[in-house]
From TrEMBL:
PANTHER family: BETA-HEXOSAMINIDASE-RELATED, GLYCOSIDE HYDROLASE FAMILY 3 DOMAIN PROTEIN. It comes from Mariniplasma anaerobium. It comes from the Bacteria. The keyword Transmembrane helix does not apply. Residues 13-333 form the Glycoside hydrolase family 3 N-terminal domain. Keywords: Glycosidase, Hydrolase. GO terms for biological process: carbohydrate metabolic process; peptidoglycan turnover. This is Beta-glucosidase. Belongs to the glycosyl hydrolase 3 family. It holds the Pfam family Glyco_hydro_3. One of its GO terms (molecular function) is hydrolase activity, hydrolyzing O-glycosyl compounds. The keyword Hydrolase applies.
Length: 527
């Protein structure tokens, strides 16, 4: 790379503005539109989603091609970022390790394993050509109704989130940039900011005691990047502004008071919390003014291009001081110089394959998921000869999730467990579905029910309550958020697996067969 390009004074205005944008695109290879974003519009950063990823090899080649375009047309490498939290938010689902999610890791109870997840994941991502990970989630999930965080958080206790967050960051930052999210905390909301603007009414004293704790500890331990949340904190911001657009939060609080020196990145600017209230284009400039270094427009090429033109016009009209832009961009360039390795054009996927497709790492990941399986209440299952398995089919319950199409529990049961009858139910079983299940259940002497976010889809809870009236031995196994016990007193035997992933399905099958002793400890309290 061209060293003089790491000095903002040597960049044209378009090049400077392009460094502020992180853009998403469609497709698994670069096309003319993607090249144009880098070549013509000077966009300096990319975010990848599952829509861009088919396999480890394809992803590696895509990232090589993207960086070659940056080398040819910008002389500055791209940040190539991804939401690879593990568990339910895993963009790379095939051709690399399927790592466990946050709450799975904390239920397994080992900080050392958490550090190793960060380290191994960071190493894989680096060798795939990704240099920035939008993880870990440092939100304290203290609201059991939270529709978007849940098991993406380590715990409902600030000190636990903090310890696991630090361990993960330390491991990840051996290799690439880790990003704490969603500052100053998305844990106590009951609204998903993908869909609307949440509000958190707590005063500063409470926020400092709970929400801020993991973020402050991460800052003090050298976190490289922070993602802002689209949430209105009336005690922190003015005029109902979400934190992403608030100078009071990003500059006064995060930079000046808490002393954060790393990169500030926004959550997606096309999320409804922003787009419906401010418009993504106008809000992109507001975020940069407030203190953000990089704003993300993950969808809509039109808005990406418009945002660059809008910021340029604001500079030319002197509505915003170019010196402020220079300051934002210089920090990006400093981090790129330090953390982005130059693409070796002679290297191929064969050179990294052993790191990306590593059997030992895969085994290590599985063992964490197995060690996390928790008996929260009652007794372990001893499968009877006359049992009925009632399974809720999962779906992506928020835009942060990915589709869960290519693995399911039922196929595994049919293949590996004879004589276990199966009923498949939608995530929101109708009254007719529930009545049919109750009728069928009467013929069995044991019921096994899997739930999937019963805290959000409470029809599942209603079904459990009805089934409990039959007086048949019932075992409930939660395949995501472990909050069913908040909503019903009728669960006598309760097990939590924290995620619906290829690893957790293997663990479930092992449990059903009676080959698993449950060792995990649930990292949330029940009231």
């Amino acid at each position: 790379m061209n060293n003089h390009k790491f000095d903002v004074n040597n960049l044209s205005l378009d090049e400077k503005i392009g460094q502020l944008l992180m853009f998403g695109f469609e497709g698994e290879s670069i096309n003319q539109e993607t090249i144009e974003m880098i070549k013509t519009y000077k966009a300096g950063n990319v975010i990848l989603f599952t829509r861009n990823i088919k396999s480890g090899e394809q992803l590696y080649n895509l990232n090589q091609d993207l960086q070659k375009q940056a080398e040819d047309h910008l002389g500055i490498p791209l940040f190539i970022a991804i939401d690879q939290e593990g568990g339910m938010v895993s963009r790379i689902q095939k051709g690399a390790t399927f790592f466990p999610g946050a709450m799975t890791i904390s239920a397994n109870g080992s900080l050392e394993s958490c550090y190793e997840v960060g380290d191994k994941m960071g190493n894989e991502l680096k060798h795939l050509g990704i240099n920035m990970n939008f993880a870990p989630v440092l939100d304290v999930n203290n609201n059991p109704k939270n529709p978007v965080i849940g098991v993406r958080s380590y715990s409902d206790k600030p000190e636990v989130v903090s310890l696991y967050g630090q361990a993960f960051i330390k491991g990840m930052q051996n290799h690439i940039i880790a990003t704490g999210k969603h500052f100053p905390g998305h844990g106590d909301t009951h609204v998903d900011s993908h869909l609307a603007l949440p509000k958190v009414e707590y005063d500063l004293e409470r926020l400092e005691k709970v929400e801020f704790v993991p973020f402050v500890d991460a800052i003090n331990n050298g976190l490289h990047a922070m993602m802002s949340s689209h949430i209105d904190f009336p005690h922190l911001t003015k005029d109902g502004l979400p934190t992403t657009l608030s100078k009071d939060v990003l500059t006064t609080l995060l930079r000046e008071k808490l002393g954060f020196k790393g990169l500030i990145v926004t959550d997606g600017m096309t999320m409804k919390a922003i787009d419906n209230n401010y418009g993504s284009v106008k809000a992109s400039l507001m975020a940069v003014e407030a203190g953000a270094n990089i704003y993300c427009i993950c969808h809509s090429r039109e808005k990406q291009i418009e945002s660059l033109a809008y910021i340029k016009q604001a500079i030319l009209n002197r509505e915003i001081d170019e010196k402020l832009i220079d300051q934002r961009v210089q920090l990006i360039l400093d981090y790129k110089k330090q953390y982005v390795t130059r693409v070796d054009i002679n290297q191929t996927y064969a050179d990294v394959k052993d790191i990306v497709e590593n059997k030992e790492t895969q085994k290590f990941s599985y063992q964490i998921v197995e060690g996390a399986a928790s008996l929260v209440k009652g007794k372990q299952l001893k499968l009877s000869n006359n049992a009925l398995f009632i399974g809720v089919m999962p779906k992506a319950t928020t835009i942060a999730d990915e589709a869960l199409g290519h693995y399911d529990i039922f196929r595994g049961i049919e293949k590996e467990i004879e004589n276990l009858e199966i009923v498949k139910l939608p995530i929101q079983p109708s009254h007719i579905d529930i009545l049919a299940v109750i009728e069928k259940a009467k013929a069995y002497d044991q019921l096994i029910v899997t739930t999937y976010n019963g805290n959000v889809y409470q029809e599942q809870i209603k079904m459990i309550n009805y089934l409990s009236e039959l007086g048949i031995e019932m075992h409930v196994i939660s395949m995501r958020n472990p909050y069913d016990l908040y909503y019903t007193k009728h669960i006598k035997n309760y097990v939590c697996l924290y995620e619906y992933t290829p690893n957790s399905i293997k663990v479930l099958l092992k449990y059903l067969k009676g080959d698993l002793k449950l060792k995990g400890k649930v990292p949330v309290n029940y009231e």
